[in-house]
Amino acid sequence: xxxxxxxxxxxxxxxxxxxxxxxxxxxxxxxxxxxxxxxxxxxxxxxxxxxxxxxxxxxxxxxxxxxxxxxxxxxxxxxxxxxxxxxxxxxxxxxxxxxxxxxxxxxxxxxxxxxxxxxxxxxxxxxxxxxxxxxxxxxxxxxxxxxxxxxxxxxxxxxxxxxxxxxxxxxxxxxxxxxxxxxxxxxxxxxxxxxxxxxxxxxxxxxxxxxxxxxxxxxxxxxxxxxxxxxxxxxxxxxxxxxxxxxxxxxxxxxxxxxxxxxxxxxxxxxxxxxxxxxxx
Length: 281
What we know:
Layout: E1 2-3, H1 17-26, E2 31-37, H2 43-49, E3 55-65, E4 71-77, H3 84-95, H4 97-110, H5 117-123, H6 132-141, H7 148-153, H8 171-180, E5 184-188, H9 204-210, E6 214-218, H10 224-236, E7 240-243, H11 263-271
Parallel strand pairs: 1-2, 2-3, 5-6, 6-7
Antiparallel strand pairs: 3-4, 4-5
């Protein structure tokens, strides 16, 4: 089984990179991708934990924003981690999360919801990329909500009055940078309407022109209808079709390997990188 989208404590997951690799082994995965938000800080530990019968794909989930303000997440896989322009883009996107969090906390405070930046930092693992899940965890710790899922269905949803976007590259810029760094670009959960505003069918053409390689079709947050629409778009535009868990440990209900990528589609995607970068023992 091939799972191309999973998170560790280096962003908003609850498993360390080592524990994530161990979980992949327990679930009998053949390929696992480590794709933390806007960071590659978990790569070294994940590689050190690798065992026989498991292949490791190194990547990152890059936060993007369209010109019209739609939040998009782009999976960059198999890129050169030493590429300086790629590292700069990740650093800048990650740094912009701090003023964004301050603004969201202020909006919550203005509405009578008492939470502080110290509460959020206390809920965030050391070294992790700051994000809404850590604000959600702080709200849980304070007894204001019951779970991350409750937060993302309400207070922290993309359409919530407490949501604040942050500085981020457009999807096209992110794709071009991923490709320039030798990797492949797959758009994640593009039609996940429960998260808020989503892309339209017409939005895919400029991304394909920028070098988009694939679409994550099979994802927990896609309905059957949304999966069908995305599968049709992928076939029309000759894009690779992937399926992934978007695993976050106990941070979300998603189970590692609950959605997977077909072997043939994975081989096609891997061949599009400029080098064979899958880590094997």
